[in-house]
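From the shared-data thread, chain only:
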Amino acid sequence: MEAVITCLAQGHDRKLLIAAGLICIVGIYAASALSGHAGRSDGSARRNWASVSIVAAGCTAWATHMVAVLAYRPGMPAAFDLPLTALSLLAVIAGIGFSMSRMIGRQDRWRRFASGLLLGLSITVLHYLGQYGYRVTGTMSWDLPLVAGSIGTSLLIFGAAMVVAVDRRRAVRRLAPPLLFVAIAVLHVGGMTAMTLSYDPSIGLPDFAVAAEVIAPIVAGVCSALVVLAFFGLRFSLQAQAQLRRDRTRLRELSNLALEGLVVCEGEIVSIVNDSFTRLTGVAAEDVIGRPVTEIIPIDAPFEMTEREEYDMELARACGTPVPVRVLRGEVKVGRKNQTVFAFRDQRERLKSEEIIRAREADLRKAKVAAEEGTRAKSLFLASVSHELRTPLHGIMGTIDLLRDTELGEGQRGYVDTMAQSSDGLLSLVNMLLDFTRLEEGKVTLNNEPFDLAGTVRSVVDLLKPLARAKEIGLDFELDGCPDGQVVGDAGRFRQVLTNILGNAVKFTDAGSVSLRLSWTDGQCRIDVEDTGVGISRDRLAAIFEPFTQENAETTRRFGGTGLGLSISRMLSQQMGGDIRVLSVVGEGSTFSLVLPFPRAVAARALIGSTGPEPLPDLSGFDILVVDDNKVNRFLAERYLASVNARIRQAEDGIEAVASAEENLPDAILMDISMPRMNGLDATREIRLRERGQGRCVIIGLSANAYEEDQKRCLEAGMDGFLAKPVSRAKLIEVLSKALSVDPNSGTDAADTHTRIAARAG
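Structure, as tokens:
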């Protein structure tokens, strides 16, 4: 930037530099006016005015450059190469002529931009031919990066100028001449700054070079001709425009008498629109005049319509809502020109009743399609979210399971238990996404088994105590009414509902306390969760059980959440035969009451949380192939199976699994479903085809997709079972033992597992 300022301030005659700028501005506006008039003309007049505008533009660029060069102070004797100087003028006129021939009448932005690049290249050729023709008694060198930068920048500005020149907005169109001026200035200043002259008295001026005193009158003559050309061109243009305005005024006055919207075109360009058309569309006349009629009539060839032919279409309006019209085409003579007239007859009244019926039918169809697409999209989204979250959860929960078999201190075991509870809670959140869809579709089934009611409630309270402590609020619970022994119900769903209700109470309470009271009478369990939180307004009490609903927008921003928890909790509690009710006062707190039928279990043999390790079966002698593209999943499966003495092989995808099974058919395969190259379903089918005559191995599918449809596809592919991740060690070995017909009491104690795992890993 410093070099540019120095070049302008010290290397140029300021008066001549200002003169060059004025010549550029006047010439650009004159050439633009002549070019615009050429675009509005037809036949020979169009060609003549285009030629005049091309010569004016070329002379403008050449004169601007020459005056700017004359303003340059080289600090040594200098002259001009007359042949090259003349060639630069001819080159720029030819280049501008070619580029403008690609622009007149074209509205496509990319074509206009490309034409602008051609225009810029033409002026670039002029500039550097002129600079090369500038001879000095010395050497000339260039800063090539600066040259390239100035050329590239100016070309982009030339292209932008040609694009904005046809913009719909008049204010934007007026930016084109200033942009052209800036582009020419950038090109000249960049080139002159990039040029370095070194005085060398041994290098003389060529014989054919002429001094500045000789070239200056030529430049002055061109500038004078340019001014005269601009003056007469504008004068003729103004005269023609005045006559055209008179003709258009008469035609417009006549057209305004018509009730239909009328559009008159000169060639393909709109010249007149009447008041009825502007009322019909809400578009101002000046925003339509001068634009191609094809932008108004959205048909391929409106001029191929025969006279009096009618065509029904929807006409765009400024407000965005199209209006149905019937288009008629005719011819009218204005002066010596035949012009095309399009009449737009409003069809709204005639089509009003039909539109209402069509709109209702369309709304029904759209609603049906939207509902179907929404259901499909939601299912795909939930399946994807479930898969992506279950895969790392499988690794976390499996590692926790293995960690429990190591020698842990009391504090460490507490940490592991907390990790397990947290991962269980996260898994519950993942399951919540699937539950909402399943509940809506009525596909949720309950798993009613004996469970420890008090232990389950305590585990939920323990899970939320750290959050309560962090917020410095109390979390109390009373289980005095809890029955002895076990009750029958779906423990997982109950834990899910209670975690949501109690978790909400803690989350929405900033001061005070949260209390839980449990009572049980004749098989009916009632849990009251009372808090001193923000409370819920009376008019929102019923709505909070609606999906994706919270108290208000401020609550959502402050506390977060999806608004699904209470909706799912109520649907689950109702499916379990109970319900959830709420009482609340804004600013004082809320009380949620959960009532569920939990009858006492008969002869329950074991309580949840009973001490002592479960015996694991002995799978020694069994050859098991683990197939999974996830390294963590293969690691967990290997450790699980090592604890029961199985022989283990591994494969990273379906192709490796097929090859390994063909080489030596294993007793069982743990097959992941989603894998690269070949998925688990295709691998299972291939193994079933190749194992004929060799016996049949057990194949258990493992997948982070937990839909029943996934299990069905696995069984149809030839698998013997299916497990949804995350899978605990006990569950995996239980399913595998049953499939291999192994006595679950035949084996080893889980307490010895760590030693065997360490030995195999070493």
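Residues 38 and 48 are 8 Å apart (CA to CA).
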